[in-house]
């Protein structure tokens, strides 16, 4: 099945830890998507290692173990967490990190660690590891086939991720800072960073040439 530009589902040689559920979940890293005025939002990278048919295509063998990654914001993880708590009332899930208006980088790191514990606990619980809520959260629509999508591919146009519009202040990272005044003649460098936080190049703002008024001689 064609997954389009969604995350690549690859066969891996990594051993499966939770053989009784057929899936391992972890949150090893996060990334900060930079916005305007030194603000942005954090996305948490969830790594899925599974042997379940729901994550495989026709080219995969039953014994294959596949791996892929999806990125989720705090709000998306919170919504998924609340669905599990409401329907299954699990007692084994660690608590969700608290909501705050603004989060610092250290708090984002703490959240990543908390989300890692939550996802690992989910993958160990048979009732949660194969639940429809988890399959939907990871982008798989049914157990009959895999339709893993990138988070930037909504089902409908109106369902665009509102984290980019900053309508949810919960997902905003960092504080706005006052720009420093600089001389016009001073060169200023800007970092060109892609959404994954990789420094691609540096752009240099050239100083504006001074205007010289010509005076005619009589």
Task: Explain what you see.
The protein has 218 residues and is α+β, with helices and mostly antiparallel strands. It has a domain at 10-153 and 164-171: 2-Layer Sandwich (PX Domain). It is 21% helix and 21% strand. The protein has 4 helices and 6 strands; from the N terminus they run ββββααααββ. The strands form 2 sheets. Strands 1-4-3-2 form a 4-stranded antiparallel β-sheet. A two-stranded antiparallel ribbon has the order 5-6. Strand 5 and strand 6 form a beta hairpin. The longest helix is centred in the middle third of the chain and has 20 residues, at 105-124. The termini are far apart.
> What is the string of helix and strand elements?
EEEEHHHHEE
Instruction: Name the beta content range.
Output: 15-25%
The CATH homology group name of the domain at 10-153 and 164-171: Phox-like domain
Instruction: List low-pLDDT spans.
Output: 142-168, 174-191, 193-201
| Strand neighbour order, sheet with most strands | 1-4-3-2
Distance between the termini: 82 Å
**CATH-defined topology of the domain at 10-153 and 164-171:** PX Domain
Protein name: PX domain-containing protein
Domain PX: 22-145
GO molecular function: phosphatidylinositol binding
Region (Disordered): 138-218
């Amino acid at each position: 099945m064609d997954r389009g530009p969604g995350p690549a589902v690859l066969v891996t040689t990594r051993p499966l830890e939770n053989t009784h559920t057929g899936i391992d979940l972890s949150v090893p890293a996060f990334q900060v998507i930079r916005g305007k005025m030194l603000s942005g939002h954090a996305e948490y990278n969830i790594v899925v290692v599974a042997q379940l048919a729901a994550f495989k295509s026709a080219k995969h063998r039953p014994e294959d173990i596949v791996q892929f990654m999806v990125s989720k914001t705090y709000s998306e993880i919170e919504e998924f967490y609340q669905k599990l708590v409401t329907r299954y009332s699990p007692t084994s899930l660690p608590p969700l990190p608290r909501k705050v208006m603004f989060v610092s980088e250290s708090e984002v790191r703490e959240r990543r660690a908390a989300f890692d514990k939550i996802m690992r606990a989910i993958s160990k619980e048979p009732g949660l590891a194969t639940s429809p809520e988890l399959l939907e959260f990871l982008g798989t629509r049914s157990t009959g086939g895999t339709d893993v999508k990138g988070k930037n591919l909504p089902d409908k146009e109106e369902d665009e991720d509102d984290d980019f519009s900053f309508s949810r202040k919960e997902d905003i990272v960092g504080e706005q800072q006052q720009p420093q005044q600089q001389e016009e003649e001073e060169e200023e460098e800007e970092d060109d960073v892609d959404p994954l936080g990789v420094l691609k190049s540096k752009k240099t703002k050239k100083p504006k040439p001074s205007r010289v008024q010509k005076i005619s001689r009589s």
